Amino acid sequence: MLVYYFGTKEALFTAALESRRQNFRLAFDAVSSPEEFVLALRSLLREMTAGSKEPEARLLIQILGAGTAGNGEYRAFASAAIADMTTALRDAILRMGGDARTAGGHATVIGAAFRGLLIDRLTSTAASEADQEAETMFSMLADLAAGRR
């Protein structure tokens, strides 16, 4: 019945994930310091891997992956989701006083790293090790976002 309403299973899945895209932006809307940036990343990763949003996160990763295979609906969603994530991160970097010339590139790297951490955490059999690696990455990402080398 639901597939009939949405037309295709792809449209059903992408409609279900629209709120996830908005939640990512909301997580970074108030960020104005490197500490808040790390807290937002940490909270979002925890929510998406050990909280109530885990099933959505698993579906999101699958759809992002399917978007690389040429499926038009998944590709459009994946492209828009990554663009939204990058924009939210870039805007937070700029609020932290980041350089406007590099903020977009840094946001792209941070978004890619976050998606990688999400995949690692969702597929790892050693959750504590994945969490420790995430903390190391968060420190590196905060330095990048703040323009520190």
Automatic annotation (TrEMBL):
It comes from the Bacteria. This is Putative TetR family transcriptional regulator. The lineage of its organism: Bacteria, Bacillati, Actinomycetota, Actinomycetes, Mycobacteriales.
